[in-house]
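Researcher: I'd like a structural prediction for the single chain below. Treat it as a standalone chain; there are no partners to consider.
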Amino acid sequence: MIESPAAQSPENSGTNISGNVSRTLAAPADWMKIIAVANIKGGVGKTTTAVNLSYLCAESCGATLLWDLDPQGAATYTLRGEPSEHVSARKLVSGKRELSEFILHTAYCGLDLLPADLSYRNFDVHLSERKRPTERLLKMSRSLRSAYSTLIMDCPAGISLLSENVLRAADAIVVPLVPSPLSVRMLRQLRSFIADQGWTDLLLLPFFSMVDRRRSLHNDFIASTRADFPIMLTTEVPYWSEIERMTLRRAPIPVLSPAGPAAAIYRRLWSEVAQRVGITAAGSAAAVFG
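Model: Treating it as a single chain, here is the predicted structure.
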């Protein structure tokens, strides 16, 4: 198989996990990019990251879709998504329903939402019943390519058949990382898994989340992890109450406080992610699904 455009672009040279197996078919340079926000651990700021990056992507690059894959639906709640009918994971996996049938517009130009559903808790069961179960998510996403420049997935915590589907489908995986021994251990496991699979075209983009620089433990782990993982993004998201309140106020931080320091941090984070993935700013364009 041929490497994806993200793996071939000059911006991404030197940042891929070493190996020799590509996961996706060749695509034009303007093909829809797929970014997963994921972590084996919960409670690390994953949904906050997914919502803010999706908003900033739509603001700067046009038609963006956020797919909330977590059955708890935190991203759906934050973006005030109220689906008119329940999504059926079984019917989606079997091909009886298309993802485009469930897409919602949000209040923000260029940003659409694929809402979560409680049936997503059974995703693994339905995936395991299909041929080539680890490639199903990639196949499902193909119907979105004509409408969106970027698909961002907010993924549930844990290791599962669904998470392997996500890794196979994505151009990049953004990993919020709390500075702690268990988080760093998880990142090493993820790096090893990707390398063992030989996925040369998957960008691993970890960054430090919920950082408290007043704590010596955080400072020590940040320093040692950066030495072990040169691919770490430079932006750090602090442990601020302003960021925690985002889900209470149910809007992206750049909307709640456009000129505030938290919004500036997420803009820097998005700028780093976009540069690594090879996403460039474009004229805003609304999605075609309604």
